[in-house]
Predict the 3D structure of the following.
Amino acid sequence: MAQAKIHAKMNEAACSKFSRTLSMADRSGRLLESLDQLEMRVEALREAASDMEQERESILEMIQSLQNSQEMRNICPGEREELSLTANRLMGRTLSVEISIGTIRNPQQEEALQKAKSIIDEIVKKLLSDMESGRQQLLALHAACVTEAPPVPIDQKFQAIVISCALEDQKKIKRRLETLVRNTENAEKNIKIMDHQKLEDAKANGGH
């Protein structure tokens, strides 16, 4: 009789332990599912912030483009002053929007990022003295950041540096180069238009 009771208690304990194990597994599964859902939301949040960051950059670029456009130069001083005030106001409001997306980097990635920034900064400085040469260098750097075969030579050294950067930094470097290339192209167009106008003005003055 006593032996039967002992076996019964052992069976109860085993069943109870098995039940608790299943319950813990269920709780663990639910927690893991919650964490998976949170991870998706975190990634969606970072992507949304990145989109907002790109939109901010795009707006700033458009405002600067309007400020430096030939159309702005061709209007009368009074209207130009009024439009410039509006553009400056929009610039200030856009700059007041601060978006920060932290990127986790190891020491090698941090070093590579600083090298890439330094190379780009040096070329930007040279744009003032030789825009065409600087633009070609920017194109070579940009070619190092794209996967498809570019129509211009690739800066192999810069490509190796970019590959060593964190993935998010690679995207930002590419975007910055795209913006710089567009700005130099727009600047060259404006210079050509201004030179053409000077020639036209000279011809008109010579004709009087």
Q: What stands out?
A: The mean pLDDT is 83.
